[in-house]
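About this split. The held-out portion is used to measure sequence recovery: a designer receives only the structure tokens and must propose an amino acid at every position. Recovery is the fraction of positions where the proposal matches the reference. Here is one held-out target exactly as it appears in the evaluation file.
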């Protein structure tokens, strides 16, 4: 990825990599000429329908439960303004900038498909906002995940009109007209069909799904590394991770990948070699021995979620939608169920990967199970508490993730005078997944700190090349064993190492590339 990547917006959709580049790396967007031509062609057809005598939903009628009212031509601009203003009814704290950029780009992707009937200027202005770093303020609550992410998208559409709330590239909230003028943009006066086209999509939940997949791909490989460090520090065996015990016997690709990662990370470890003979234990505990089965199941779940995301990326969601033959027809494609289900599914696996990591950490701290390590990995147990409360923090994060694993998509609440009587709550599933992923990162960071201290305390034995490289990276920011000190900064530094990809990069400096990739978008 270049420093300033460019994403081309065409009629053929986008990739997960495109979404991440725009959301997180401020990639510049260019609209393909053929996309603008297609948008203009379809718009001409919509304008013909708008001036016909026969009412067409979304073009010359009201919306939702008010769809039976025919709107005169001279009131239709006001209709579009009213739609967006009334639907921008979110509440709560602003959501993250990257989420708003992802949903805006995904809506622009759908506008570029030519299936929504907007004018080219609407698409061009949406892209102009993204390229200028202008980010609408979208509130936490407001989407039910059906009829699309209505309130979040409406907050974005309101800014497109030159109204509402927004921040500049530096995250500073400023008047929207001022931001437009500075960027050389002109607010859009929405015409027939354009209000609905801007707000009827699953873009908020889909954007958050794609960002979560990106994060989990990194975290699951990191989980294999921290698990291997715990196995090493606890004098566990690496033999249960041999390739012949996985894919040939149980053909789950994620399990095989995780086992391979752990086996390679533990390769050539003097600590592991030190107890290959004379060790009376028959088997390691499940939290060590079954780590590939848990993390591998999570990998396969993320791969399924990626497949759903790619299908949704290929979609052109609007209601009504303009078919290739020019027919404008109502549909239910804005229902977020397919996306909501996998968002919930990922919350389940995020919780379980965190849970097994916490069990390994607890084992490291317990002298009855740690095979010679001091209680709580403390310097002077009794005077010092070591990592006792770090494990409490880990346990609190795991408990929170278990609560977040309760699915949102099995709930529903009727709205719009019972017209919208079943909703997906996919936005809610996405919001809790973001918290769950953040918590998983923190849990793995605490395991990293604990397992690293365990490895230090095995001295004069030394860890293997891969785990030793990770240990050295941690010691550049976090001191080794010693008397008790303020622990919170250590845990934050470890979390930053995980978030920056340093843990994986240092391990791979010894192992070569580890298997953490998902199917290409």
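Reference sequence for scoring:
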């Amino acid at each position: 990825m270049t420093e300033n990547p460019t994403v081309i917006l065409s009629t053929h959709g986008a990739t997960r990599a495109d979404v991440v580049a725009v959301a997180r790396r401020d990639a510049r967007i260019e609209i393909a000429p053929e996309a603008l031509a297609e948008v203009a062609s379809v718009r001409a057809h919509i304008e013909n329908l708008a001036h016909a005598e026969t009412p067409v939903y979304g073009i010359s009628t009201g919306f939702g439960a008010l769809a039976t009212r025919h709107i005169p031509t001279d009131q239709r601009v006001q209709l579009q303004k009213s739609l967006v203003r009334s639907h921008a009814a979110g509440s709560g704290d602003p959501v993250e900038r990257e989420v708003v950029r992802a949903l805006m780009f995904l809506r622009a992707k759908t506008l570029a498909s030519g299936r929504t009937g907007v004018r080219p200027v609407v698409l061009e202005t949406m892209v102009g906002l993204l390229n200028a770093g202008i980010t609408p303020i979208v509130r936490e609550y407001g989407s039910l995940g059906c009829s699309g992410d209505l309130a979040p998208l409406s907050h974005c559409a309101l800014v497109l009109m030159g109204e509402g709330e927004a921040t500049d590239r530096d995250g500073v909230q400023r008047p929207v007209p001022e931001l437009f003028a500075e960027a050389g943009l002109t607010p859009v006066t929405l015409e027939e069909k354009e209000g609905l086209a801007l707000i009827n999509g699953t873009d908020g939940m889909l954007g958050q799904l794609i960002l979560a997949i990106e994060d989990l791909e990194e975290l699951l490989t990191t989980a294999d590394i921290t698990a291997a460090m715990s196995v090493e520090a606890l004098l566990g065996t690496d033999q249960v991770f041999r390739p012949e015990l996985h894919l040939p016997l149980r053909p789950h690709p994620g399990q095989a990948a995780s086992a391979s990662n752990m086996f390679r990370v533990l390769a050539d470890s003097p600590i592991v070699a030190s107890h290959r003979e004379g060790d009376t234990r028959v088997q390691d505990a499940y939290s060590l021995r079954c780590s590939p089965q848990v993390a591998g199941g999570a990998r396969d779940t993320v791969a399924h979620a990626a497949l759903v995301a790619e299908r949704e990326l290929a979609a052109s969601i609007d209601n009504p939608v303009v078919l290739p033959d020019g027919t404008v027809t109502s549909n239910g494609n804005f229902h977020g169920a397919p996306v909501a289900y996998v968002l919930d599914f990922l919350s389940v696996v995020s919780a379980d990967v965190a849970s097994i990591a916490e069990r390994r950490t607890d084992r490291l701290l317990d002298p009855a199970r740690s095979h010679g390590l001091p209680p709580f990995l403390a310097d002077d147990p009794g005077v010092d508490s070591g990592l006792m409360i770090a494990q409490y923090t880990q346990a609190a994060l795991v408990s929170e993730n278990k609560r977040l694993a309760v699915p949102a998509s099995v709930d529903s609440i009727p709205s719009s005078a019972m017209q919208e009587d079943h909703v997906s709550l996919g936005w809610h599933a996405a919001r809790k997944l973001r918290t769950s992923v953040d918590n998983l990162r923190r849990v793995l960071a605490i395991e990293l700190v604990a397992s690293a201290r365990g490895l230090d305390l095995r001295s004069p034995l030394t860890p293997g090349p891969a785990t030793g490289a990770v240990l050295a990276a941690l010691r550049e920011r976090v001191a080794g064993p010693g008397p008790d000190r303020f622990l919170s900064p250590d845990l934050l530094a470890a979390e930053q190492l995980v978030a920056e990809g340093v843990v994986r990069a240092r391990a791979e400096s010894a192992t070569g590339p580890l298997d953490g990739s998902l199917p290409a978008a």
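Annotator remark: The first helix runs from residue 16 to 25.
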